[in-house]
Request: fold
Amino acid sequence: MVIINNRDKLEWQESMTVRDLLTKMGYTYSLITVTVNGELVPKENYEDHAVPDGADVTVFHLAHGG
Amino acid sequence: MDIEEIFKRNVPGVRDILAKKNVAVAGCGGLGSNAAVALTRAGIGKLIIADFDVVELSNLNRQYFFLADVGKRKTDALAAHLLAINPQLNIQAHFTELTPGTVCELFAEADLLIEAFDRAESKAWLIETWCVHFPHKPVVCASGLSGVGNTGTLTVRRSGNIIMCGDFETDMSMGLISSRVAIAANMQANEAIEILIRGIDKDGHH
Reply:
């Protein structure tokens, strides 16, 4: 099981990547910052970065404005 | 005049700790200018600020500038205002458009970064650059501070060394109002002060 944003649960799968998780959760918005167990995952690593079982994942939406 | 009297009503002990701290502020607009003022009033020792814009009339609805600042570099105008609050503040102002390279160079000595950009694409690369190069240093960001009202939707989310303030939804195409932008900026300063005083644990709680 993977927990997303302290709220949503997703069944863990063998060799699940950050990209797999984002696709499964329907995150199509590209302006995001993703952490897995508190560590930032650079965008270029989404395809390769494995999400371990039990991971705590955070997806921050970045909105324009400042 | 004893300048330390500025901090007489501060929470006891806070000035002594903050006086030894160094915070970088990336962007001197609605978020950065207001957060820098809050940090200065709280007693921060050093600020490194950076921006590449000059003050425009349309900034005065939410940014910590005045009519007389219009046309000046934001970094110069803000530095002057901060020093007018506390002349002992150590302020380093960089009039430059930040890049991943210059962030690592100019902000290397900072204990913590305040992300105060306006464009989401810029926020993304700044946060990524910071976390890759300075994984043990916190970055306090803002996302979603546009529109009117909805005070209760402004919140803080944390993961590791990333702290994000805002509603995570509202976009600047809705327009930006002073009060809401300043709340987000002051939430950032508030989070920064707490982390500098109490530290942060690996789960992002503090």
